Amino acid sequence: MPDLPELAAAFTAALHDAGIAVGPDRTRSFARALTLLAPSTTRELRHCALATLVSDPEQIELFDGVFREVFGGAADRGAQRGQPGDPPRSLPNTVPGRVPGTRTDTAGGRGRDADAQPRTAPVPLAASPLDRLAGRDFADLSAEELARLSEVMRTLVLRTPTRPSRRRRTAHHGARIDLRRTLSAGRRTGGYPLRLRRFAPRARPRDLIVLCDISGSMEPYARALLQLLYCAARATHAEVFTFATRLTRLTPVLRRGGPDDALARAGRAAPDWSGGTRIADCLAEFNERFGRRGMAHGAVVALVSDGWDTGPPADLATHMARLSRVAYRVVWVNPRTASPRYRPLVAGMAAALPYCDAVVSAHNLAALDDFAAALYARRCHR
């Protein structure tokens, strides 16, 4: 008789092979549900698995097919309903009242198979709101879902690679000798430095710069991406800009007050909201006013745009090349790339691609993991 971990691992592995994304967290939740609820029928077992392993209603049919193969046709929902007087069907190869591998208390004769009573507990039939929200496109979210998304995004941490700073730290295998500490320690041994003291530069996170397109073509994603800008502005060494027909620095606005007030002020501070798009002109302004002053030197720069530009593509390529020469890493965030039919046919996007280290979609909550990973990755050699 298989034990509980083997049951959970085998079933979740079968789901994963069938195309349902089942990670270690959901496997652990499934095993915990089996331990707490101790389902005695295949219907109860299906409810446990459905509540912990499935996050999209479209996956239920595929889930039932895998469940039917593993547990011998017990996943037929029509047959599970039965008649009011019908006895419930037991799990295959199990004793009623027990899940394979669960322990029973034999002290004092309690917990025997004949006396075991199945536990009853309400089983949720749908995934949590957060799981359902993870796969939804930002452009399709309602106002209530956007409010829930804001709460989740406040816990998002955007990290960048480290860079050596001018500050030093003691290191046993440092590349340079700390002459002052070496001579100071030598006074304890008659003036002879018996041990060389070394130091290495301290590491600090690289600056993060986010330039977000708020033109009309990006309006379906603007509400969610503005919350992403708030998260970026709260990060250490971060600068946030928006652009459509002009460049607007929003860092001071987003760093003051609570998230709701900050987002409202940010919307009022950008006068070109849902306007036209002049990516090349705004990027040229950023390079001239901020990039040359050192803001972009060695920084990770994220450009959030679909690539629609009213200017000549050659101008955008020129300013992107200039930016890539001073920035440590350039990440382009284009929600349109989430579609499998997407092709970089827009002239602006095609002109910018050769100067990007990574292109990600960030079109939903699950895709933000790729965005965070792209920011934290090391520079690739072009």
UniProtKB/TrEMBL annotation:
Residues 205-380 form the VWFA domain. Residues 76-128 are annotated as: Disordered. Coiled coil: none annotated. Pfam families: VWA_CoxE. Signal peptide: none annotated. CDD domains: vWFA. InterPro entries: UCP010256, Uncharacterised_CoxE, VWF_A, vWFA_dom_sf. SUPFAM superfamilies: vWA-like. It comes from the Bacteria. PANTHER family: BLL5662 PROTEIN (PTHR39338:SF6), BLL5662 PROTEIN-RELATED (PTHR39338). This is VWA domain-containing protein. It comes from Streptomyces kebangsaanensis.
